[in-house]
Amino acid sequence: MTSSVDGLVSGLSTSSMITSLLQVEAAPQTRLKAKVDTASTVVSSYQSVNSKLVALKNAAADVGALSTWRAIKPTSTSSSVTATAIGGTNTSTGSLTFDVVSLAKGQSSTARVATSGDVTSADSFTVQIGTGDPVTISLTDKSAQGISDALNKAGIGVKASVVTTGGAQNILQMTSSKPGTANGFTITGLDDVAIATSAATDAKLQVGGTEEEGGYSVTSGTNTFTGLMAGVTVTVSKKETGVTLNTESDVSGMAAKFQALVDAANATLTEVTAQTKYDPDTNTGSPLTGDFMVRQMSQSILSKVSQGLSYKAEDGTNVAFGSLSKFGIQLDRSGQLTFDAEKFTASYNADPTAIKTAGIALGDSFRAVANTQIENVTSAITGRKNAIDSMNTQISDWDVRLAAKKVALQKQYTALETSLGTLKSQSTWLSGQIASLG
C-alpha cells in the first residue's frame, strides 16, 4: 500500500506539493467544467424560450381551430333550466321553446315489516332491473335487515335500508340507484312481504306546442337532455311551461382566444429580449446574447403583424386580408402586441364568415412560425446537450487520469523520503565513525 510520509525526513509538506501539482495537472479538466456550466446555462435559456414558443403554438392552434369559431353560448329564460355548451364542431344557433312536463325519478318500493325476527320464509328472492336478466339473491338471514344487507351486497343497482319508525312496524325501503323507467325494478319471491311501489319516471319535454300544433315530445332517463339542440346539454329541475332556450355564437369566447394569442406572443417577445439583452454600462450580456437564431424570432413574430395577413382560400385563390387591426390586433410603440376585444366583436358581427376564415388562416400562420422556431431551438438544445455529454465524458476520463497521477506522485515522494532517511542514517553512522577516530 502506497502512502505519503508528508516530509518526515525532508521536512517538506509533500501532501501540499502533491495537491498543487495536481491542480496544475487538472487545469484542462477545470476548463472543461467551466464550459459545461456555461453550456448548461445556455440550454436552460433555450428551454425557457422554447416553453414560450410552445405556449404561442398552442394559443395559435386554438385560434385556428374550427371548434373555436363554432363555439356557442346558450341561455335559458328559466332559472330551473340550465343550458351548457359541450364544445365541438357540431353546433347550431337558434331558439327553442318547450314545456317541462315531468322530471326523471327513480323507483321506490316499500314494505311494512316486523321490527324483529324473520319477515319471510323464502330462501331467496329475484330482482329484475328493466329488461335485464333476473338476478337471484340467496337469503340466510330472513329478517328485514338480512334482506337489506343481501340486496346491497349484490350490487345490482338497487339499494335497500330499514327505516325505524318507532311504531309497531319498520319500513323496508328499496330504491333504484339511477332514475328513469329503464332502471325500474321488480322483486319476486319474498313470501309474506307486501311491497308497495312508486314507479320510476322519465323526464319529458314537450317542444313547440301540442302534437296537434306540430309539436313533439322528448324523453330522457335523467333530467339532462343532450340531443335537444346541437352542441348543448339541457338540465331541468322542475315542471314548468314556456321555457325558451337561445343559442348564439360565443363571440366573447373567440375574443378570449385572440387575447391568449396576443399574450403568448408578447410573452415570447419578452423572453427573447431577456435572454439576448446586453448591458453596455457593465459590458455584460445574457446567455443568448449574440445568438442570431433567437434574436430573429422577434422579427418573425412582429412581421406577422406589420405585414398584414394573406392566405390561400379553399378554391386556391390568394386573399389579401390586410391589416390585423380588423381583428383588433396592433403593435404599440414598445414593440408589444395589443388586442381590442370590442373592435374584434364589431368586425365579427359585421361579417362572421370573412372573419372566421381569416381568423383560422391567422392562427395557422402563427402556429407555423412558432413550430419552425421550436424545431430550431430544439435542434440547438440537442446539439448543446450532446456537447455537454461529450465534455462530461472527458471530465470523467480526467478523474481517472488524475487519480493515477496522484498515486504516482505519492509513490515518488514516498521513495524520496525513504532515500533521504537512508542517507541520513548513513551520515549519522559515518559521523560516529569519524568521531571515534579522534
From TrEMBL:
Subcellular location: Secreted; Bacterial flagellum
Alphabetical list of InterPro entries matching this protein: FliD, FliD_C, FliD_N
Domain Flagellar hook-associated protein 2 N-terminal: residue ranges: 10-107
Domain Flagellar hook-associated protein 2 C-terminal: 200-424
This protein's record includes keyword Coiled coil: yes
Highest taxon of source: Bacteria
Keyword Cytoplasm: no
Pfam families per the UniProt record, alphabetical: FliD_C, FliD_N
Keywords: Bacterial flagellum, Coiled coil, Secreted
Quaternary organization: Homopentamer.
Function: Required for morphogenesis and for the elongation of the flagellar filament by facilitating polymerization of the flagellin monomers at the tip of growing filament. Forms a capping structure, which prevents flagellin subunits (transported through the central channel of the flagellum) from leaking out without polymerization at the distal end.
Family, as annotated: Belongs to the FliD family.
Protein's UniProt name: Flagellar hook-associated protein 2
Organism: Winogradskya humida
